[in-house]
Every structure is written in C-alpha cells, then in structure tokens.
Amino acid sequence: MYIIRNSKTQPEWGKTEAGLKGIxxxxxxxxxxxxxxxxxYRIYALSKVDGVDFNLAAIxxxxxxxxxxxxxxxxxxxxxxxxxxxGKRGYPWMKHPPGxxxxxxA
Length: 106
Fold this sequence. Notes:
This protein is mainly alpha-helical and 106 residues long. The chain has one domain. Helices cover 51% and strands 11% of the residues. β1, α1 (20-50) and β2 form a beta-alpha-beta unit. The longest helix has 31 residues, at 20-50. It is flat.
C-alpha cells in the first residue's frame, strides 16, 4: 500500500493572530491536519489486519517554503522539484504513521 500525503506530518509552530478569526483559522487548520493523521493510523491498522506492506510519503518537515496565496506557483514548483529529487534518489518511504515508529521499535 502506498499513501502520498500532501501535507507535513510533524507538528508545526505557527504564530496565531489574536482575536476570534485568527484563533478559529488556526484551530480549524490544526483539526484538519490531525484528522488526516488519524486517517493514516486507520489505514495503517487495516494494512496490518490485511497483511499489506504500508508505505507513506509526506512533505518533509524541513520544507520551509511559505505559500503566499492559495495557488502559489513558486511554492508548488519548489514542492514538485523536492518530490522529484527525492524520488530520483529513491524515496525513503515511512513504514509507520508519524509517532508510531518509536512504539513499534520498542
């Protein structure tokens, strides 16, 4: 099973604007991110039940290009180039959802 997640899976620090709008935006973005990570855990559990090899790709935590707008061509090109380079070198697929690798190794 190969999953490509178009997001980072590590926690990210972010400055939140004071006020209802800023706090609400940050909260919603955080909820959406962690719902997606929860989905990865469910997919991983199903892969183990079905005896299927789990392989996950996600945006690396050190990719620090900031989006200037919703469809930022520069951001998308740099992300594409990163993915292309990682694929060309032999992408190191993650074998567990984020955070679980420590529990599995123990």
